[in-house]
Each structure stands twice: as C-alpha cells, then as structure tokens.
Write a structure and sequence with these properties.
The protein is mostly helical. It contains eight helices and no strands. The N and C termini lie far apart (about 50 Å).
Length: about 200
C-alpha cells in the first residue's frame, strides 16, 4: 500500500511538472536561493498554515516562486491524500462488525470521497488550461468550483456520522482521515484563490 501511494504521488508530481512546462508563459520565474521561504510565506494565507508547510515544503524546488506551480502542487498533494483515504474507506466498508447505520455511512463516504478525487483531478486539468489570455478568469472560476465541490463532498461524508448514536471507533477513525484531507484541500483552495487574485487582468 505504501509503495502504491508513493508511486501515485510521484506520478502526480510528474504531471505538475509536465503541465508547468507546457504553460511557461504563465509562470513567474525568479532566481531564489531559498525557495522554501516562498512556500512558508505563501502558506500563511491558508487556514492551516502548519499543515500547508508540512505538505508542500518537500516540493519547494519544483515550485520555486511560482504561484501557479504552488497551486498545482497543492492540488496534486490533495488528490494523493484524498485517493489514499478513498482506498481506506473501501476497506472499511468491508470490515466485519459494522452496525447498520455505520455501514450505510461508510458506503456514502466511499461514494462522496471518491467524487472528491474526481473533482480534484478535474480542477488540475482545468488549471492546466490557464494562460495569459482573456479566458483565464473563466478557467480559474471553474477550478475554484471544482475544489469547493470536493470540500463539500468531504463535509457530506462527515455529516453521515452526525449525532451521538454514531460515536465510536469507526466514526473516530474515519473522521480523522476525512478531516485531514479536507484541511489539505482547504489549503489548496486558498492557494488557488491567491493565484487567481494576483494574476493580471487583460485590458479590454
């Protein structure tokens, strides 16, 4: 399982690098002797800055000082971690001893977190289409919509475990996993929003 997760992460980062190379016109290049500082300063704009730094610092040399590359990398990390949680939930749904409501809630989570993965993948594809043209704002609006929808999916999963009647180990384990991916995705959305806000608007 660990090997699979590592391979998925490498594939996602390779995708980020490829998409970056095909859209060089939209990437701001700087000669920064310490790209880690860019990641740290950018993460201050997120809701969970410590988690943001911990998630992205390893990719600082790929990100450099590009807001676009930072957003792409954050989304790729979010996909990797959400996909890992989706796989965990599938295993949980087959576990013995689940009560009726627990089983239904886990099944719902399998579906909603799976949807979250697909929405995040769509957001990466959409962000890859952004450039300096007049359609930038339209593409970015689509990215923001997809990422926001992914967050809603995470919340929907947790809603299924609402109420004291659902308290227990199953709820605690799933909540820990889903809250983590929701926080990572929330940070990615904040970095996407920052990239969208700092991009120059073409003159009419």
């Amino acid at each position: 399982m660990a090997t699979t997760v590592r391979l998925v992460s490498l594939l996602l980062i390779n995708l980020v690098i490829y998409m970056s190379a095909t859209a060089q016109c939209s990437i701001t290049k700087h000669s920064d002797p310490n790209p880690a500082e860019f990641v740290k300063s950018s993460c201050r704009a997120t809701r969970y800055p410590v988690l943001c730094v911990h998630s992205l610092l390893a990719y600082a040399t790929v990100i450099h000082r590009s807001d676009r590359q930072l957003a792409l990398t954050a989304l790729s990390v979010s996909i990797s971690r959400t996909r890992s949680s989706a796989s965990f939930l599938k295993k949980m749904s087959k576990a013995r001893g689940l009560k009726g409501r627990e089983w239904r809630a886990v099944q719902d989570c399998v579906e909603t977190v799976g949807d979250s993965v697909e929405r995040l993948k769509q957001s990466v594809r959409e962000l890859g289409r952004t450039g300096l043209g007049e359609e930038f704002a339209w593409h970015m609006s689509n990215v923001q919509t997809w990422v926001s929808a992914a967050l809603t999916d995470d919340d929907t999963c947790l809603d299924g475990f609402g109420g004291s009647a659902m308290n227990g180990n199953v709820k605690n384990v799933i909540k820990e996993r889903v809250v983590h991916v929701a926080q990572v995705t929330s940070n990615a959305l904040a970095l996407v929003n920052h990239f969208a806000s700092t991009h120059p608007t073409p003159s009419p």
